[in-house]
Amino acid sequence: MDIGSTIRAIRKRKNITIAQICEQTGLSQGFMSQVETNKTSPSIATLESIAEALKVPLAYLLLRKEERMHIVRKEERRHTSSGPEHLKVSHVGTTKHMRMMLVEFPPGSSTGELPHAHEGEEVHLVLQGKIYAEQGEEGAVLEEGDSFCWNACTPHKVKNVGDEVAIVLISVYTEEQGDWKVI
């Protein structure tokens, strides 16, 4: 863990000196310097007082880099295609167990002729257009602003039944890390 570098980065971003941290926490400047260079590991109680002085939650100091906020700018999104009709997929964000994407369905296109199944749970929000969603024996027409969710292990498919491009925001949760299958 690289707690010291995190503390130093927060302190510098907030224009706080080591002396100011030491004044608030009662720690010595030498000890704080060792903490910031990762030469010593402070106790939880010490970290708590440093977090208070920095005005950040203690939990934030304990996060690993991959657990912190990750920003994906619109122009930086990864784009792929999915299914037999090569639907345009724009990857919005990914965590260890979840991914979110925007999928464009041209008029008449679908996730495939036959329903398919895969591991995970999905939540869909129709942002534009009109789609038909089917899972097992159930089906429904959904329009802009409508949402639906399902366990993806039951065969399902989605089809654009409107006259314009349909755009659907999809979040997929899986137990397996990064086990990303097609929609």
From TrEMBL:
PROSITE patterns: HTH_CROC1 (PS50943). Pfam families: Cupin_2, HTH_3. InterPro entries: Cro/C1-type_HTH (IPR001387), Cupin_2 (IPR013096), Lambda_DNA-bd_dom_sf (IPR010982), RmlC-like_jellyroll (IPR014710), RmlC_Cupin_sf (IPR011051), TransReg_Diox_bact_type (IPR050807). Coiled coil: none annotated. One of its GO terms (molecular function) is DNA-binding transcription factor activity. Keywords: DNA-binding. GO terms for cellular component: cytosol. Residues 7-61 form the HTH cro/C1-type domain. PANTHER family: HTH-TYPE TRANSCRIPTIONAL REGULATOR, TRANSCRIPTIONAL REGULATOR. This is DNA-binding protein. It comes from Paenibacillus beijingensis. The lineage of its organism: Bacteria, Bacillati, Bacillota, Bacilli, Bacillales.
